[in-house]
């Protein structure tokens, strides 16, 4: 199945219904979006791309993003949405690893990316053959001649999501039509139904999991609203909700806290909200209780991973909004119960299922679990064992099936809803001639969830400002450490491995 059939169907049923809006203005209706998708598909085919080829998208949120995505699918190609905050070197590596034939990007980023691609990307490997395109004028225009949707199999790659890992480079999560369809059905079944004209705001990056939530709205004839700011602005989001009505969006806990503070300062409850779906990082119980008091009963929580997109557990609105139920505060502090299309199990290190109340690794299986990691069979086999995806998260199930997360067995840092893996930051720091050793951890932070902290052993005098400037030359700005701690040595075991657990304990005492 090619997902573009969804757009074709909706364009036939609701041709005049608003499909994409830019702020309060309608950018196109569904008939026009289908025409744009066909123009994009023709343009890509004219470049010699064939079904199965990859197309990377590297840009901030803008209306063209969705038209490019649907045109990529219409042509039978594989979309590689790439974090707009990444450094050109990081984008070059993803383009090379995925074998992307074209990188569609903003005009301000094209020149820097072209230079890096010619130099061979971040690995100094062979130069990437990817073509960089920033002139996106082909997206809009007169209605094209009809173009048939390229046939695709149910398990053919549709979306490559490069997710952070704990070692080395990010891995390309391969999502096919079946994963994206199951994720869409999960949203409609457990988060909320969608009717024609309902709005989905997109303050979160379209390249991330939250961007996948535009799919239920295309399927059902809703309007996808890209803020004029291209990102998150609390006052803008609340104003757009009031304008479009029945408006929903995905928000990391950081965004929820900022929305709450903005609503509190206004002295009135927001209007036009349907559901704010939060996830992507831990939400403190006190924060969700505060949000409910200030914003109102508009919250649902999901727990998922790139490998099981937005679909492992759900804490729906009716649970969050019912304080009379038994153990209410425990349930609101959990991440909910298994979504209907997956099984969730907590298992020990030998893969044995644990009883209720005992903590272990969270595992999930079902049709929404990824096809595997792109061109990485070993990593796929390590992650999916005996049919179960091993998430690397630690938690426990209660007797009623509610899952509470305790920690991550991986070293992954989640700051403001963005994934950061320490080794990449450590490698950047170690490239500085003054750095002898470096270890990076996440420090709990009320605003961001976690912030990046670097412990550095210097071989010669160096300042935090110098290291910060160095990091900005090779990794994305949001990944650089917020704090640098200079130490004489790092805690290690007998084998010389840095003891991050001990380092976190030392950091907690120092931060206190």
Summarize the structure in words:
A hairpin with a 2-residue loop joins β13 and β14 (308-315). The chain has 2 domains: 4-397, 3-Layer(aba) Sandwich (Rossmann fold), CATH 3.40.50; 413-511, GMP Synthetase, Chain A, domain 3. α1 runs antiparallel to α2 (30-46), α4 packs across α5 and α9 (253-266) packs parallel to α10 (285-295). Helices cover 32% and strands 28% of the residues. It starts with a helix and ends with a helix. It contains 16 helices and 26 strands.
Give the spatial strand order of the biggest sheet. Answer: 2-1-10-9-11-12-13-14-15
Radius of gyration equals 23 Å
Shape: globular
Strand content: 25-35%
Q: Please tell me the total number of domains.
A: 2
Please count the helical segments: 16
From the 3D coordinates, which CATH architecture of the largest domain would you assign? 3-Layer(aba) Sandwich
Any low-confidence stretches, pLDDT <50, length ≥5?
A: none
- CATH homologous superfamily placement of the largest domain: ANL, N-terminal domain
Largest sheet: 9 strands, mixed
- The fold-level CATH name of the largest domain is Rossmann fold
* Terminal residue distance: 54 Å
State the CATH class of the largest domain. Alpha Beta
Helix/sheet category: alpha/beta
Question: How are the SSEs placed, and which strands pair?
Answer:
Blueprint: H1 4-13, E1 18-22, E2 25-29, H2 30-46, E3 54-58, H3 63-74, E4 78-82, H4 88-98, E5 100-105, H5 107-119, E6 131-133, E7 157-163, E8 171-176, H6 177-191, E9 199-201, H7 215-220, E10 223-226, H8 234-244, E11 247-251, H9 253-266, E12 273-278, H10 285-295, E13 299-305, E14 308-315, H11 317-320, H12 328-333, E15 337-338, E16 342-347, E17 360-366, E18 372-373, H13 377-383, E19 384-385, E20 388-397, E21 403-408, E22 413-415, E23 418-420, H14 422-430, E24 435-445, E25 449-458, H15 464-471, E26 483-486, H16 500-511
Parallel strand pairs: 1-10, 3-4, 3-5, 5-6, 9-10, 9-11, 11-12, 12-13, 25-26
Antiparallel strand pairs: 1-2, 7-8, 8-18, 13-14, 14-15, 16-17, 17-20, 19-20, 20-21, 22-23, 24-25
């Amino acid at each position: 199945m090619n997902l573009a059939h969804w757009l074709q169907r909706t364009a036939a049923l609701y041709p005049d219904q608003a499909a994409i809006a830019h702020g309060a203005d309608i950018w196109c209706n569904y008939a026009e979006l289908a025409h744009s998708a066909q123009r994009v598909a023709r343009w890509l085919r004219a470049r010699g791309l064939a079904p199965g080829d990859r197309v990377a998208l590297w840009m901030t949120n803008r209306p063209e993003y969705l038209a490019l995505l649907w045109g990529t699918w219409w042509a039978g190609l594989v979309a590689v949405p790439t974090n707009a905050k990444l450094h050109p070197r990081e984008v070059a590596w993803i383009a090379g690893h995925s074998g992307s034939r074209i990188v569609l990007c903003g005009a301000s980023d094209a020149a820097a990316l072209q230079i890096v691609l010619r130099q061979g990307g971040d690995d100094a490997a062979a130069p990437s053959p990817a073509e960089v395109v920033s002139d996106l004028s082909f997206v809009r225009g007169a209605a094209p001649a009809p173009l048939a949707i390229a046939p695709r199999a149910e398990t053919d790659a549709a979306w490559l999501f490069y997710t952070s890992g704990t070692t080395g480079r990010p891995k390309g999560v391969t999502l096919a039509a079946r994963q994206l369809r199951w994720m869409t059905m999960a949203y409609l079944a457990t988060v909320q139904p969608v009717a024609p004209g309902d709005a989905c705001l997109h303050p979160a990056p379209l390249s991330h999991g939250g961007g996948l939530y535009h799919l239920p709205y295309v399927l059902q004839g809703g309007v996808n609203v890209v803020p004029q700011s291209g990102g998150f602005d609390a006052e803008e989001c609340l104003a757009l909700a009031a304008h479009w009505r029945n408006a929903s969006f995905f928000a990391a806990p950081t965004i929820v806290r900022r929305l709450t503070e903005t609503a509190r300062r206004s002295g009135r409850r927001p209007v036009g909200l349907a559901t704010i779906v939060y996830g992507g990082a831990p939400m403190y119980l006190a924060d969700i209780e505060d949000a409910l008091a200030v914003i109102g009963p508009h919250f649902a929580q999901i727990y998922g991973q790139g490998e099981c997109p937005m679909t492992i557990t759900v804490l729906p609105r009716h649970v969050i909004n019912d304080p009379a139920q038994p153990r209410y505060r425990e349930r609101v502090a959990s991440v909910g119960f298994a979504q209907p299309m997956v099984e969730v199990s907590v298992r020990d290190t030998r893969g044995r299922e644990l009883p209720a109340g005992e903590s272990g690794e969270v595992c999930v299986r079902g049709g929404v679990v990824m096809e595997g990691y792109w061109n990485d069979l070993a990593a796929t086999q390590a992650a999916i064992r005996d049919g179960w995806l091993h998430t690397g998260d630690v938690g426990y199930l209660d007797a009623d099936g509610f899952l509470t997360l305790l920690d991550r067995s991986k070293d992954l840092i989640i700051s403001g809803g963005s994934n950061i893996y320490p080794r990449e930051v450590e490698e950047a720091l170690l490239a500085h001639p003054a750095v002898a050793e470096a270890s990076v951890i996440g420090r709990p932070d009320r605003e961001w969830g976690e912030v990046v902290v670097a412990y550095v052993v210097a071989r010669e005098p160096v300042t935090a400002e110098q290291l910060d400037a160095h990091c900005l030359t090779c990794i994305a700005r949001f990944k650089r450490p917020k704090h640098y701690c200079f130490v004489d040595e790092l805690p290690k075991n007998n084998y010389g491995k840095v003891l991050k657990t001990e380092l976190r304990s030392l950091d907690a005492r120092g931060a206190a």
